[in-house]
Amino acid sequence: MGEIRLVLAGLGGVGKNMVRLVQTRQQVQIVGAYSRNESLLGHDLGELIQENPIGVEASTRYQALEAQADVLVIATTSFLAEVTDDIHAGIEAGLNVICTAEEMAFPWIVDRETAMSIHDHALREEVTVVGAGANPGYIYEVVGLALTGAAWDIESIGVQRVVDLSAFSSGVMRRLGIGYTEDTFADQVRNRAVYGHIGFGHTIRSFAARFGLEIERIEDSIEPILTEHSITSLAVEVAEGESAGLRQRTIGFVEGEPWFNAEFLGHVDLGDLGLTPRDTYEISGTPNIRGVIEPGFNPQRTVTAALMNTLPHIVAARPGLISVTDLPIPSPWS
Predict the structure, then answer these.
(1) Rounded distance, CA 189 to CA 112, Å?
(2) Most buried of the four, 6, 155, 179, 292, by CB within 10 Å?
(3) Residue burial 144-167, b: 16+ Cβ < 10 Å; e: rest
(4) Whole-angstrom Cα distance, residue 196 to residue 217?
(5) Angle, nearest 10°, between helix axes 299-316 and 13-22?
């Protein structure tokens, strides 16, 4: 395989980790990058990760997309509406697009008209667009689906993520509900200021589509995990009695019965709960299958690896807007 040339959109944690990982891959080159953070403009990407300059500076979208490239990697936000312009700009520049927005994992249920517009545009330009990352993306759509390949039949599926939230930014922590009293947490959930992990609904739809099933409805609940002592060494300080974590349950129903049960348990001090990071899979059927990844997949490292290892598959994929489940299983490549 020849060299794959990348343009990065977004230079937060994922974008910077992509810069780091690219330095270890001879067959990948970053040729452009842009960010909405104007303070980063003009800075060499190597300097942004506190390493030697690599000869590529953060610029505007227009400037970055002038580079001769193969793939645009968008790692900016979770929501389809907020990445649509970047996706169309990448398509117009003739680039394949891989996007980490959770709502891009199965965008047809978010806004079908927008999803079809992206699909049609990609077909016209003969490029591929896919939503990918850790979760949704690799952890369940790849690993979880692979486990189902050993089943004769499946009655139901259950997954659980136990995640250490201590390394997340203040913005992500607040979105996940860290640092609120019990009443304020409930108010923030009602106001959609706290919404936990938004990817499970997309994972459930992706699984159902592969099995030819129809999800009738999805139920979602979020509860705070309150701490009995203050925690001050984090991006968000947590006082005694405030939320240091959350427990989120998402259930997809088929023919009136729970078919896919997903649980997300995130906390800034898992040791305080006697827990460690872990990913668990429970497949009920013939046979019953249980899989445990321990320690669990690190969110930051997993999304970066998944993006990098998916690159050759998106370059080779059929044109249009597709799901990560349409691609081969990713692996390190050279």
Answers:
(1) 26
(2) 6
(3) bbebbeebeebeebbbbbbbbbbe
(4) 19
(5) 60
Q: Which residues, in sequence order, are bridge partners of residue 209?
A: none
SS3 299: helix
Check whether 158 has a pLDDT greater than 70: yes
- What band does 233 get if pLDDT is binned at 50, 70 and 90? confident
The arithmetic mean of pLDDT across residues 91-113, rounded, is: 95
Report the pLDDT value the prediction gives residue 238, as an integer from 0 to 100.
95
Q: How far is CA 320 from the centre of its chain?
A: 20
Strand ranges, E, within the chain: 4-9, 28-34, 58-59, 71-74, 96-99, 128-131, 153-164, 217-226, 243-254, 257-267, 278-286, 289-293, 320-322
Q: Pairing mode, if any, of strands 257-267 and 278-286?
A: unpaired
CA atoms 269, 245, 294, 299: torsion sign:
negative
How many other C-beta atoms lie within 10 A of the C-beta of residue 258? 13
| Maximal C-alpha separation, the chain | 57
Contacts of 245 (CB under 8 A, 6+ apart): 165, 178, 224, 225, 227, 265, 266, 267, 268, 273
Of 135, 137, 185, the residue nearest 162 (C-alpha) = 135
Instruction: Please state whether 37 falls in left (phi above 0), alpha (psi between -120 and 50) or beta.
Output: beta
Please confirm whether the linkage preceding 312 is cis (ω < 30° from 0): no
pLDDT at 1: 60
Q: In what order do the strands lie in the sheet with 289-293?
A: 217-226, 243-254, 257-267, 153-164, 278-286, 289-293
Residues 14-25: tens digit of each pLDDT:
999 999 999 999
- Per DSSP, the residues of 84-113 read HHHHHHHHHTT-EEEE--GGGSSGGGT-HH
Residue 151 one-letter amino acid: A
How far apart CA 317 and CA 87 sit, in angstroms, is 17
What is the number of alpha carbons within 13 Å of residue 251 lying toward its C-beta? 12
Counting every residue written for the chain, the total comes to 334
Report the Cα–Cα distance between both ends of the chain, in Å, rounded.
8
CB-count burial class (<10 Å; 0-12, 13-18, 19+) for 31: middle
